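Saturday, quiet lab. Running sequence design on the structure tokens for the scaffold JK sent over.
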């Protein structure tokens, strides 16, 4: 309940207007949009009578808040769904090989209609066709689009960047050759609203919201979080569809706030650079008076750090400043940490730690600094990053990976062990220093045998010593 309360409070700081709370950016870290401007008889009409493709170009995905409503994007209801909430198809990164990249989009021998794995086949059959079924397009519109799309795409294929994620986005040709995004087109907005209501509706029976206790037509948290599915139970119960309205039902207002909070959490308070494949959410919650002011201050501080131009990308900025910034926050806040991994449709939670005060983070960082000085001595003023809690947490898995060697199975085991250690650190529990020493001493010979660089061997051994020293220092502060 603490997690849900905190994420709802985060969403309440800037509640979205209209559909905004239900929307996310198509590509979380930005990327390139293949913009397809459709030619129509009347831009305001419902349904749209699509005459063909006016033009296609490439544009950067803009991350300004107002663009979210223009993109009108929400993840599909499921990977097998034959429709999307908006006319956007995620392509991912293009293949580096030109021939393979072309085949991935246009199909083998340019026969997109006969290649079920190519993007044009999916665009037609898993996206656009439903617009005719739902009468958002007039009959024949999709065939007219697909008749012109392959040839028009030839203009942009040579300019795709294999280092960037790409998405196809359909809009309309505006005045003076401008591009109208889906959220600016009445037919697309109406389609989105119908699909959203059908997806969120759990039944007509009135129940009480599990959070604010108001009578409501229930919404389900499973539409916001995929921490459990009916075949894979994780954080929540796995229930059959008939019982879903009674599994923590929430009202529409709470749904919007929690959805908005998740989006802000993912965009501003998320880190995926510490452990491979693991997303870390840090969710602040105010305690005592002045909660809204404290949260606003924290979020503003974090967002300001993310706009620092001295580093190249948001992920790098979070990597170096994340935990240390949290450790410097004053009293009146606690943090909830969620470590999770995407596993197909499910978001698999590995670790959840609630109610971590900033003072505990500050203690961890201080003790890590003492351990680094004890092992490495004077490292110079230009390596202050070595003393941060961020460096400590990143170095744990990196050190263990060195001792795991080339075995992927051992690396996974050590990653899970690193998560357990991090969990104990955040909870203020005794750390397993004896097991850590046994693990690294028993594998020291492998580290020497499999390493090509003696400097790497020496560095890993020193970091292992620093971690053993750090664990002992923490255990002296923690009651058994």
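Result came back. Writing it out in full:
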């Amino acid at each position: 309940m603490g997690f849900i309360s905190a994420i709802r409070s985060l969403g309440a700081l800037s509640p979205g207007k209209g559909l905004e709370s239900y929307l996310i950016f198509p590509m979380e870290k930005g990327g390139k949009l293949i913009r397809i401007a459709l030619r129509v008889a009347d831009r305001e009409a419902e349904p749209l009578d699509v005459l063909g493709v006016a033009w296609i170009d490439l544009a950067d995905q803009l991350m300004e808040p107002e663009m979210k409503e223009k993109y009108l994007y929400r993840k599909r209801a499921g990977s097998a769904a034959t429709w999307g909430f908006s006319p956007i198809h995620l392509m991912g990164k293009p293949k580096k090989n030109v021939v393979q990249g072309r085949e991935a989009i246009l199909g083998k021998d340019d026969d997109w209609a006969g290649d079920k794995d190519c993007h044009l086949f999916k665009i037609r059959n898993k996206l656009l066709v439903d617009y005719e079924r739902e009468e958002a397009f007039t009959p024949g519109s999709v065939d007219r689009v697909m008749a012109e799309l392959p040839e028009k795409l030839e203009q942009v294929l040579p300019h795709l960047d294999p280092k960037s994620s790409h998405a196809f986005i359909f809009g309309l040709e505006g005045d003076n050759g401008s591009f109208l995004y889906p959220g600016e087109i009445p037919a697309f907005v109406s389609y989105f609203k119908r699909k959203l209501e059908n997806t969120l509706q759990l039944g007509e029976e009135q129940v009480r919201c599990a959070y604010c206790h108001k009578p409501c037509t229930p919404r389900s948290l499973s539409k916001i979080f995929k921490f459990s599915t009916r075949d894979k139970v994780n954080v929540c119960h796995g229930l059959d569809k008939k019982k879903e309205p009674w599994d923590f039902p929430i009202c529409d207002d709470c749904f919007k706030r929690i959805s908005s909070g998740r989006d802000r959490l993912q965009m501003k308070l998320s880190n995926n650079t510490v452990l491979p494949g693991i997303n870390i959410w840090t969710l602040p919650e105010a305690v005592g008076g002045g909660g809204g002011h404290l949260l606003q201050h924290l979020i503003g501080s974090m967002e300001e750090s993310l706009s620092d131009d001295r580093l190249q990308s948001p992920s790098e900025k979070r990597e170096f400043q994340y935990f240390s910034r949290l450790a410097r926050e004053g009293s009146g806040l606690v943090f909830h940490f969620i470590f999770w991994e995407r596993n197909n449709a499910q978001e698999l939670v590995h670790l959840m730690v609630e109610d971590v005060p900033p003072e505990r983070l500050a203690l961890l960082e201080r003790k890590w600094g003492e351990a680094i000085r004890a092992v490495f001595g004077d490292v110079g003023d230009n390596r202050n990053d070595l003393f941060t809690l961020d460096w400590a947490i990143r170095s744990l898995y990196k050190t263990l990976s060195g001792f795991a060697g080339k075995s992927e199975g051992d690396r996974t085991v050590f990653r899970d062990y690193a998560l357990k250690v991090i969990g104990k650190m955040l909870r203020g529990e005794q750390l397993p220093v004896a097991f850590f020493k046994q693990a690294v001493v028993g594998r020291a010979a492998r580290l020497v045998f499999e390493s090509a660089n003696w400097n790497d061997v020496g560095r890993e051994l020193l970091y292992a010593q620093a971690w053993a020293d750090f664990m002992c220092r923490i255990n002296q502060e923690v009651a058994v």
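Notes for JK: Residues 358-477 form one domain. The first strand starts at residue 32 and ends at 40. Ask whether to fix the surface positions before the next round.
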